[in-house]
Amino acid sequence: LNLRDNQVSDISPLASLTNLTSLYLWDNQISDLSPLASLTNLTSLYLVGNQISDLSPLASLTNLTSINLQKNQVSGISLLVSLTNLTWLDLQYNQISDISPLASLTNLTWLYLRNNEISDLSPLASLTKLSRLDLSSNPISDISPLVENSGLGEEDIVWLEKNNLDLSEGSEDLENIRQLKGRGVVVHY
User: Fold this and answer.
1) Sheet harboring 44-46: ordered strands across?
2) pLDDT tens digit string along 30-68?
3) 48, 57, 14: which is closest to 28 by C-alpha?
C-alpha cells in the first residue's frame, strides 16, 4: 500500500489490513503509529517525511526487515531493539543522539544516520554485517569504533562528511580512515 503526498494524518483505517506486508506512507502528516501495532506481517515500512516521534507501536512488528523513518521527529530509538530481523534502517534527518539500541540489530547491512546528533559510535562496533553506513552531518569526533568493526571491509561504503573529524596529517581520525581504506572500505570524508 502506497500513500504518498496525501496529507494523511489518521491511519486508524489501516489497522484492519493485517495481511499487509509493505506500507509506504511518504510525506503525510502522521504522528500516531498505534494503528500499525496490529500489522505484524509487515516486512517493509516507509514513513518518510511525517511527524513521528513515538516509535513504541513498532516494537511488536518483529517481521520487519526494512524501515525508513527519514525526516521525522525521532529522538529515541530504544523501542527498535526487538526488531532483530532488520537489515535496512534509515533514520536520516531526525534528532537522534543515542544509538546504543542499534547494537542488538546485528543483521543490519544498510544503516543511514545522516544529519542527526550522534557522537558516540561504539554501538556500531558489533554490527559486522554492515555494507553501507552513512554517518554524514553529525558531531562525530572519534571513528575508532568503525575500525573495531571487523566486518567492515572490501567494497563496503562509509560516509563521514561534515563531522567534527580532525583530518590533519598524523591525526587519529585520518589514521583510522586509512586503516578502513586499507581493508577495502570506500570512505567518503
Assistant:
1) 22-24, 44-46, 66-68, 88-90, 110-112, 132-134, 157-159, 186-188
2) 999 999 999 999 999 999 999 999 999 999 999 999 999
3) 48
